Amino acid sequence: MSNRRDFLKKSSLLGLVGLTSNLISNNQLNAIESLGNQAQTNDAFTLTKLPYSYGALEPYFDKQTMEIHYTKHHQGYVDKLNALKSTNIDYASTDEIKCTHIDKSTAVAVRNNLGGHFNHTLFWTLLKPNPLGIANKPIGKLNNAINANFKTFDEFKIEFSDKALKLFGSGWCWLIVNDKGVLKIVTTPNQDNPLMQLGDERGKLILGLDVWEHAYYLKHQNKRKDYIEAWWNIINWDGCEELFSK
Ligand SMILES: [Fe+2]
């Protein structure tokens, strides 16, 4: 519990400082730390504090969608996970490791709700406000790797957007590093992710986009393409660089 209290204290202090890209980067680390602490202390799963306000991602992600997405959808996965406490969840590991143990034999409720909680926790940390509409591009080693794998950032963007747009139904589009160290763009259905032992392409998560309709329907209705285009403006590339460099 002390670890968790420390995390909450840190979140409060950080909230007083204001929003900078470094702060979001710190929050990302805190979010990951929090997931680990939950596992170590066998606490109930909880929502990790957002590193910005619901309206901070305007005009790209609207305030109402963010609030409903976080307090209803993400909270729903957390609540359902906690209701599953009596099932065989290995609490002695981080949620990232728990995801790597999920396979086709895993109970569907555990797979969906653990995936939903983990994916959304990561998703929030890989967004950042951009109220001035400043050009938003990858940095550092990840930028170099994207250029080496996809020729240019623009070509990467086209391929990622196309896969996210064409994913049938609900799911996620990801940038991963596979077991050969190669960057790949992959999609997963529902709340699965490439950490799980489910799809053909598995690997370390660098970037993820939620393409469930609940992420965009209020603002963009059925126009997933508009939502994807808006998202490129608010990707937290500092956070992606940290994940890539780990
Ligand atoms: Fe979602």
Q: Brief description of this entry?
A:
The protein contains ten helices and three strands; from the N terminus they run H-H-H-H-H-H-H-E-E-E-H-H-H. It has 246 residues and is mainly α.
The CATH top-level class label of the largest domain: Mainly Alpha
Helix content: 40-55%
Number of domains: 2
- Calculate the terminal CA-CA distance, rounded to whole Å: 27 Å
What's the name of the CATH homologous superfamily of the largest domain? Fe,Mn superoxide dismutase (SOD) domain
CATH topology of the largest domain: Helix Hairpins
What proportion strand? 5-15%
Number of helices: 10
Taking Cα atoms only, what radius of gyration do you get, to the nearest Å? 17 Å
What's the story with the biggest beta sheet? 3 strands, antiparallel
Task: Give me the strand/helix succession.
Answer: HHHHHHHEEEHHH
Q: Look at the helices and sheets and give the structural class.
A: mainly alpha
> Largest beta sheet: what is the strand line-up?
2-1-3
Which outline best applies?
A: globular
Q: What's the layout of helices and strands?
A:
Elements (H helix, E strand, L loop, with lengths): L1 H16 L3 H21 L21 H21 L11 H6 L7 H18 L14 H11 L2 H14 L4 E8 L4 E7 L13 E8 L6 H4 L3 H8 L5 H9 L1
Antiparallel strand pairs: 1-2, 1-3
Helix pairs in contact: 1-2, 3-5, 6-10
The structure holds fe (ii) ion.
Structure description:
The chain has 246 residues and is mainly alpha-helical. It has 2 domains: 2-125, Helix Hairpins; 140-245, Iron/manganese superoxide dismutase, C-terminal domain (minor pseudopilin epsh fold, 3-Layer(bab) Sandwich), CATH 3.55.40. It has 10 helices and 3 strands, in the order H-H-H-H-H-H-H-E-E-E-H-H-H. A 3-stranded antiparallel sheet has the order 2-1-3, with helices on both faces. A hairpin with a 4-residue loop joins strand 1 and strand 2. Helix 6 packs across helix 10. The longest helix has 21 residues, at 21-41. The protein is globular. Mean pLDDT is 84; it is low at 1-42.
